Amino acid sequence: MGWLIFLANGIYAQGEYEKKQFVSQGDTLNYRLLRPEPGQQQYPLVLFLHGGGERGSDNEKQLSHGSEMFRNPVNRENYPAYVLYPQCPEDGYWAYRDRPETFTPAEMPSGLSISPVMELVVGLLDEYLLRPDVDTDRVYVMGLSMGGMGTFDLVCRYPELFAAAIPICGTVYPARLEAAKHVHFRIFHGDKDATVPVSGSREAYKALKQIGADVEYIEFPGVNHDSWTPAFNYPGFMEWLFEKRRKTN
């Protein structure tokens, strides 16, 4: 990762993702942190959950998708934020203790306890939410594939934390979304997805619309599992996200 610059005084150059670790009760979560350009009193916080292919312990692969759009100088100027990129261990799964046998919405788990790695993610979030320069009304979560499922899971468990969520090619047991009806949603999926059925996003959208949630669904014709590529390039992607504020329930 040639663009990662560590200065002699131990401070990372602005615009680079710092390598960090969060430790809780003997468990460790690797993550990367992008700090905002200084100049404001408070900043939004973005949590990005990667897909299954980026699991590991190198604290690098999780930056494979999406990280560059936050590093983009124009976006850093227009949308300064704290950006967290945790890395799920090789044997872990964001939303569930084990990989579900099927990704059909009606057969997704509906009442499981929080996974160990997601418990660490929540602890990491809590640590940053205590910072006085984090705007707790502008906390966002997004993720792709396994991370899309993690996005759905987090907002169902902790809807009071998040202003907006962007699940990409994810799935969830639709009835769980009742808890997240005050979260702003933008959902993306490819209609030819051979890994996570497009029904996952379609059913989530219908469930959210039925309860009166603020939700938008964008489906890409002819796109397989790689729907994050057109999603990140969708017009107004950053503008939509950063204008959202947490609703008062």
Q: Can you summarize the main beta sheet? A: 8 strands, mixed
What is the terminal-to-terminal distance? 43 Å
What is the name of the CATH architecture? 3-Layer(aba) Sandwich
How many separate domains make up the residues? 1
CATH topology: Rossmann fold
Secondary structure tally, helices: 7
Unreliable spans: 1-14
Which structural traits does this protein have?
single chain; 249 residues; Rossmann fold; eight-stranded mixed sheet; 8 strands; 23% strand; disordered N terminus
Give a written overview of the molecule.
By secondary structure, this protein is of the alpha/beta class. It has one domain (17-242): 3-Layer(aba) Sandwich (Rossmann fold). The chain is built from seven helices and eight strands, in the order βββααβαβαββαβαα. It has helices at 67-71, 73-78, 116-129, 146-157, 199-210, 228-232, 237-242, and strands spanning 17-24, 27-34, 43-49, 82-86, 134-144, 164-168, 184-190, 215-220. The protein has an eight-stranded mixed beta sheet with strand order 1-2-4-3-5-6-7-8. The N and C termini lie far apart (43 Å). Residues 1-14 have low confidence and may be disordered.
Give the helix/strand layout:
Elements: E1 17-24, E2 27-34, E3 43-49, H1 67-71, H2 73-78, E4 82-86, H3 116-129, E5 134-144, H4 146-157, E6 164-168, E7 184-190, H5 199-210, E8 215-220, H6 228-232, H7 237-242
Parallel strand pairs: 3-4, 3-5, 5-6, 6-7, 7-8
Antiparallel strand pairs: 1-2, 2-4
